[in-house]
């Protein structure tokens, strides 16, 4: 009995964290299922626009990362979007920029989920998102609808940062991270298609661009991107649920 008495009891904080993460997994499942419904993109319309924005910004920011130029961003009311970039157009650069739109949001989303372990970091991340979206509107947005939506999103994150308590900020950042991680599920068929309609115009899909640059078929790269996206999400959730070391 003395031995049992010395066993540590689960702290209320750890219990609440587990409940919050279980709720997050439930939200992830709901989003994933609804986006696969015939009108799922319209049911989750604001989230779909945010996912498309993250996808296109992933292209543009990856272009900057590999030494190219991010020239413009547009978002259309039908949920499609485009990022215009310029660079040396080498095979590796083209493949990386194409993959950046599919993988970039998952990487950022997992980072947000991990940051939400700490209310202070969650508040900081929300503020950075608000400021970053303002920069995108000023520097890269090139159509009215896209600028208005990103401006509204920036105001929403600013309000989250300033007005919500720690629990509210943590939930908002976790939800945003979950949406970014699952943005590729918005239209999973896109990764296994050769073309897509962007603003009413037929354009090559990202996996078709990768196939053209790296030779292997587009469906192979679609499978690679899907597996990597799930791996990034799994890693983020694992790191987010690891017990924090006591100081």
Q: Which keywords apply here?
A:
two-stranded antiparallel sheet; two-stranded antiparallel ribbon; 247 residues; mainly alpha
What does this protein look like?
The strands form 2 sheets. The chain has a two-stranded antiparallel sheet with strand order 1-2. α5 runs parallel beside α10, α6 (about 120-140) crosses α8 and α9 (about 205-215) crosses α10 (about 220-240). It is globular and about 50 Å long. The chain is mainly alpha-helical. The chain contains 10 helices and 4 strands, in the order ααααββααααββαα. The protein has helices at about 1-5, 10-35, 40-45, 45-65, 90-115, 120-140, 145-165, 165-180, 205-215, 220-240; strands spanning about 70-75, 80-85, 195-200, 200-205. The chain has one domain (about 50-240). Mean pLDDT is about 85; it is low at about 1-5. It starts with a helix and ends in a 6-residue tail after the last helix. A hairpin with a 5-residue loop joins β1 and β2.
Short description, anyone?
The chain has helices spanning 2-5, 12-34, 40-43, 45-65, 91-115, 119-139, 144-163, 166-181, 206-214, 218-241; strands at 69-75, 81-86, 195-198, 201-204. The chain is mainly α and 247 residues long.
Which helices and strands appear, and what pairs or packs with what?
Layout: H1 2-5, H2 12-34, H3 40-43, H4 45-65, E1 69-75, E2 81-86, H5 91-115, H6 119-139, H7 144-163, H8 166-181, E3 195-198, E4 201-204, H9 206-214, H10 218-241
Antiparallel strand pairs: 1-2, 3-4
Helix pairs in contact: 2-8, 4-5, 5-8, 5-9, 5-10, 6-7, 6-8, 9-10
């Amino acid at each position: 009995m003395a031995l049992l008495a010395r066993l540590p009891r689960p702290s209320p904080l750890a219990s609440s964290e587990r409940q919050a993460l279980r709720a997050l997994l439930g939200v992830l499942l709901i989003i994933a299922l609804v986006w696969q419904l015939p009108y799922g993109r319209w049911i989750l319309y604001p989230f779909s626009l945010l996912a498309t924005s993250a996808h296109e910004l992933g292209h543009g920011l990856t272009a900057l990362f590999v030494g190219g130029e991010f020239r413009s961003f547009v978002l259309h009311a039908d949920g499609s979007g485009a990022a215009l970039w310029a660079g040396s157009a080498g095979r590796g650069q083209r493949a990386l920029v194409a993959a950046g739109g599919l993988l970039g949001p998952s990487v950022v989303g997992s980072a947000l989920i991990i940051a939400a372990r700490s209310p202070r970091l969650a508040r900081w991340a929300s503020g950075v998102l608000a400021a970053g979206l303002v920069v995108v509107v000023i520097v890269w947005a090139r159509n009215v609808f896209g600028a208005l939506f990103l401006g509204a999103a920036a105001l929403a994150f600013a309000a989250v940062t300033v007005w919500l308590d720690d629990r509210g900020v943590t939930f908002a950042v976790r939800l945003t991270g979950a949406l970014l991680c699952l943005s590729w599920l918005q239209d999973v068929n896109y990764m296994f298609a050769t073309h897509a309609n962007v603003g009413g115009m037929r354009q090559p899909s990202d996996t078709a661009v990768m196939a053209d640059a790296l030779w292997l078929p587009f469906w192979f790269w679609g499978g690679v991107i899907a597996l990597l996206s799930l791996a990034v999400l799994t890693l983020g959730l694992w790191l987010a649920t690891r017990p924090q070391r006591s100081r």
